[in-house]
Design a protein that fits this description.
With 280 residues, this protein is of the alpha/beta class. It contains 11 helices and 8 strands. The structure holds 3-methyl-2-oxobutanoic acid (KIV) and sodium ion. GO terms for molecular function: 3-methyl-2-oxobutanoate hydroxymethyltransferase activity; magnesium ion binding; methyltransferase activity.
Amino acid sequence: RKKTTIASLLASRSSGTPITVVTAYDYPTALTLSSSSCPIDMTLVGDSLAQTALGLPSTTSLTLDEMIHHAKAVARGTTTPFLVVDMPFGSFHISEEQAARNACRLVQEAGIDAVKLEGGREIAPIVRKLTSIGIPVMAHVGLLPQRHVAMSGYRVQGKDVAGAERIWGDALALQEAGAFSMVIEAVPTPLAKYMTENLDIPTIGIGAGPYTNGQVLVWDDLLTTTPSDHKPKFVRRFADVRSLREKAIAAYSTAVKDRSFPHEIDESYKMDKSEWEKFM
Ligand code: KIV
Ligand code: NA
């Protein structure tokens, strides 16, 4: 299996082969997504890192330095997937210069392939700037978690004609600015389908229905790693890792407390009797 490239993503789009994307925040996860037995096209170090791995209340408190720390670990374990990293809140909005400086840090220090930027037409000049200096940009439209306060929560976007027109206009502006691909988050299926059919770049959906060119899910959502009663409608639980982990830790605890672990011979080191006698 070859390394995913922008050209191979475009080829998947043309041939109608769905593109698979999963988030990762550390080295072992990156290894899994790179493994030949479950090959994934693209690994995303999403700023969902804030909640999933760092226990922060939202993505807006994640810093660029924290993102670089995790992106480095993911990069060390990534082979074939195209490696994309979210630019955190506040790390690209201030100016084109700030965005370029911080995107260069991500490329240089973490060794990632591309950056993802949340936002609409207002960030098109920033997308153009990064693209012009050779840093591929993935756009992200629809629900923008970095703006959850301004949007009054995490809600489906583009349900009315004004919202749909705004998202479509944003998508066109971002494609025009040079984005190589686009995440579409939490929009009605017909809008995501229309966007996919009328854009020239691959669309990657999350909560955007089955007609986008690819799908992305958060690692912790698809594996169920974390206690959570709330399951967003668009999440499917492909495994219950949380209960598997809890069972294993409970078994370990019991074994230590009842002294059945470690086994005296199979799980312990021995010493020659003569050496032991000299020691004594
Ligand atoms: O941060 C993230 O995990 C994301 C994906 C859900 C697209 O942006
Ligand atoms: Na994100």
